[in-house]
Structure formats: structure tokens, C-alpha cells
Amino acid sequence: MNELPPLNALRAFEAAARLGSVSKAGAELFVTHGAVSRQIRALEEQLGVVLFVREGRGLALTEAGLRLRDASAEAFERLRSICADLKRGANDAPFVLGCSGSLLARWFIPRLDRLNRELPDLRLSLSTSEGELDPRRPGLNATLLFAEPAAPPDMQVHVLAPECIGPVVSPRYAHASTFHNASPDALLGEPLLHTVSRPQAWPAWAERHGLSASSLSFGAGFEHLYYLLEAAVAGLGVAIAPKPLVAGDLTAGRLIAPWGFVETEAVLALWVPGRLADQRAQRLAQWLKTALAEE
User: Quick one: which of 22, 127, 223, 255 has the fewest CB in 10 Å?
Assistant: First the structure.
């Protein structure tokens, strides 16, 4: 089977034949006059024919050149048309965002109306999961998740904000009043609510505050962070959570954060598969970054 000439050589020839000038072809393709000439010479050598001849101070197409001009012009125009249709179709389709159910319920949904008003062309569709979020899962345009920023080469990672976590408790909790102005070791002996999805959260926080992880007392465990925080609001114990997920509860007074929040090594980021050159992801990342910074 005969192989096609290199695409760059065909593009250089098509542009020069259409514009009637090697210099103009170079300007259109953002390369030098010499680069276009070299591509055309390589194409002539591969095909074994002459495509251009000198005519006065310009160039004229040979019969072979005319045939290749017509065929390449039709092929490139067809490709341009199809690519434009595909791009329009991609932008008309919903933008599917993956995120955890906890993040969706506690941060995203309260801000969804604002997002829809400010990014009306996004046509956001949300896909939730409380298990291990896979940014490469088919059907997702992007994934919003907390993770350490070790970006694989096949992913674009838009860092939005550092992760900040801290203990939160309901003012109705029996010992809540004793936490005011108390040192972190006041938590020793308290039933600490925790999740099976992130068992290292409490030990990491304790070590950050000079406490031994082995001295912590754990109460009820929950499969999902959403249920953990509902238990904390109900006054069942002290929970630990990322700040954005409890911002509404802190503002409303349903929860308090006696020791504030500390940064971890993780970040909240928008992960986008590298194969998806969708500008909507960039606009969403900027919107999310702004919304988080305001809080």
C-alpha cells in the first residue's frame, strides 16, 4: 500500500498553491519562507514530479501541481469543515463533571444557581461517586477532587485551592463549651467521628498539633463524609473535614471549629484528561478558583 506524503509537506504545498506565494504560505503557517520551500522540495522528491516552475518573478503550477492542488484543497477543506462540526458538537454537549457526593451536596449545590447564571454556556451535568474517583473514567470531561498534586502526563490539573482541614463540632455537643480557648489536647478522650475513606485525617491532624495519634479515641465510623458531617451536626461527636464542605454550617452556626483549619499536602483541583481540549474546563476552573477564594 502506497503511503501518503507527510501532512506538513502537503499543508505547505496546499497553502503555497492556494496563495500563489511561498512567502504568504509561510506567514499563514507561521514558519519561514525557507521551511515551506524545503517541504515542497521534499514532496516533489517523494512523488517524483515537479509541482512548481518559475514564471517571471513568481511560481506557476505544473500539470501535476494542478492535480495535487485540487485534490489537497478539497481534502483540507473537508477536514476543516468536519473539525468545525465536531468542535461545535462537543461544545453543545453537556460538560460532565465528576465529584464526590459530599462535595456536591455541601459545597457545589448551594452555589449551582450562581454558576449556571455566570456560565450559562457550560451546560453542566454532575456525576457523583463516594468511592475512589477516577479522573480517567470514560464520559467525564473533568473531575473535581482533593488529592496531592502529582499530575500524570496525560492529565491537565488546574489547582484551585490548598486543602484545609480541621475539627468541627455542634454547639449542642455536650462538651462543646469546654473547647473554647482550649488546647488541641482537649480532644483526647473525646469520641472522634471518622470515615473509612480517609482514616489518616485524624492522625495527620494530631501529629500536626504535637499529639500522638495513638492517644486518640475514635467513636462512630462512617462510609461517606456526608454522613459523618450529618452526625456532627446532630451532636454525636467531633468530626474532621475540609473547610469548604462545612463553610455553610459554620456560617449558620450549626457547627463550630474551635481550632480552626490547617493546610495539608493535598489541594482541591480540577483534573481534565489531556486529550480533551475543551475551553469550558478552563472557564470552570477559573470560576471555581474565584468562588473558593471569596470564601
Answer: 223
**CA angle (107 as vertex; 101, 110 as ends), nearest 5:** 110
User: Cell digits for 278?
Assistant: 475543551
Let me know if residue 177 belongs to a domain.
yes
CA distances from 153 to 7, 99, 104, 156 (A): 26, 21, 27, 8
Separation of alpha carbons 108 and 126, rounded Å: 10
Assess contact for 125 and 92: CB atoms under 8 A. no
Residue type, 282: Q
Per-residue pLDDT of the chain (295 residues; tens, 9 = 90+): 467 888 899 999 999 888 888 899 889 889 998 999 999 999 989 989 999 988 877 788 999 989 999 898 888 888 887 776 666 655 567 888 999 888 888 999 999 999 999 998 888 888 886 556 777 788 888 999 888 777 777 888 899 999 999 999 999 999 999 998 899 999 988 889 999 878 889 998 998 898 998 889 999 999 888 899 999 999 999 999 999 999 889 999 999 999 999 998 889 999 998 766 678 899 999 999 999 998 7
Query: How many domains does one find in the chain?
Result: 2
* Residues 257/246, Cβ–Cβ less than 8 Å: yes
CATH of the domain at 43: 1.10.10.10
pTM value? 0.64
Residues in the chain: 295
Contact predicate 280/274, CB 8 Å = no
All 3 cell numbers of residue 192?
472522634
Q: Enter the C-alpha cell of residue 216.
A: 486518640
Beta bridge partners of 155: 273
39 occurs within a structural domain: yes
Q: Which domain holds residue 29?
A: 7-92
